[in-house]
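Input protein
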Amino acid sequence: MQNGGRHSRSGWTPARTLLAGLAALVLTFFALGALFQGHIAGLEGASLRTPIQLGGPVSGTQQVPDDVASILQPTSTRYKGPLDLDAAVNERVNAINASWMASEDRAWWLEPGYHLSYMEDYPPYPFQRIKRVTGKDTGVMAIIAPFYDLDYYKGEAARAFFWRMKANGHIFVIITSYQEFPGTIVNPFDDRHTTPGDKIIHAAVDGYLHCFRQPDAFLPPGVPRMLLSESDFHDPDRRDGGGSLQPWGLPKEYDIFYSCQGGEWNDFARNWTLAKDSFKRLVTKLGIKVIIMGRDLTKEEDNDLSPLISSGHIVTHGLNTPWKDFLRYIESSRVLFAPNVHDASPRVLAEAMSLDVPILVNKYIVGGWKYVNQDTGAFFDSVDNVVDAYKDILGRQQAGELHPRQWFKANSGKLRSVFKLQAFLELAVGKERLKAAQAVANARVTY
């Protein structure tokens, strides 16, 4: 009775105490949630209100929506200069180089030139940073491939990343390093494609570094562009522990070098069907020796090249060949063979020319066609003319008429390409926007 009396006076039974505690926890949870939502909204609002001008960040906290809207609108509505900047870029390259050579202070940290950074975890593929040759971030980013479309959330995250970084003041260019991108990808085994919404992004970038003969067929109108490929940034004078693009003077052990890693995607992109038919024709007519890198045909079923492997006319190497050895195999070959069509400028072409190896290229290749001329090699397009094209290269090679390494160093390569990229950006977006993007990069503004 006494216990009952005490409980009746206070009203707090153990059950009621427990319920009160739970209610307090629930109220605390909702209060913290409201505070967190307010904090996030404030951050988002602050980010959207960040003062951004085409000429660079401004002081103060005033809203400048017109400037942000100008950055986000399609490039074609705000760029009024010439579409193709190749000639102007070449003039600007000469000016940059002359200024650098005349400078009294040529410290390494002042060296001009922009280059494509190595792939990093952030930003994720297909984004790639563009940095100064000194290694400093510029606030400029490249998109080098379509967004991934088999994972909805991954694709949408990439699209959101673009718009947020662009709103923050970053500059974006597209480098056509992936098949027909930004055009329609025709490889039936690919998992990256362009959606209608992506075309809005493609029109909103600040420029294109492309590889196409007919850029109007692949690129949106009104966006400045230049013929410059990722493969152009190879350094023909590189020689280090990773490999050498300077020739060693190795003896020729093979007549043709061809690279294809196998699998449905690679077989389509590297035109494995035409490659096999061409090898059969070349071996039958000329008895040549071919080295195939990237696949071990002795382990593949339904291999119709087995007789040529058994006879020693075809040698294969698997996927685990180090790059430095890969390059030595290129130099040990008389001709590099590229039957590729749906390829946006194979790096192996730049590697071969750096090593003074001529190139035999499918004339219908999407990119890389610009490397083929009287100094570097020849085109072919079917088994019907591959033998004549190969013999033509050998004849000019023996006559001393081919100079692929000399041509590549004079017209492409890292030393020239880093100046071209800087010149293009200065002409396409202007030094003031580059300065503003640099400030954003220095502040490490993200989304």
Summary: Residues 255 and 334 are 5 Å apart (CA to CA). The mean pLDDT is 87. The radius of gyration is 29 Å.
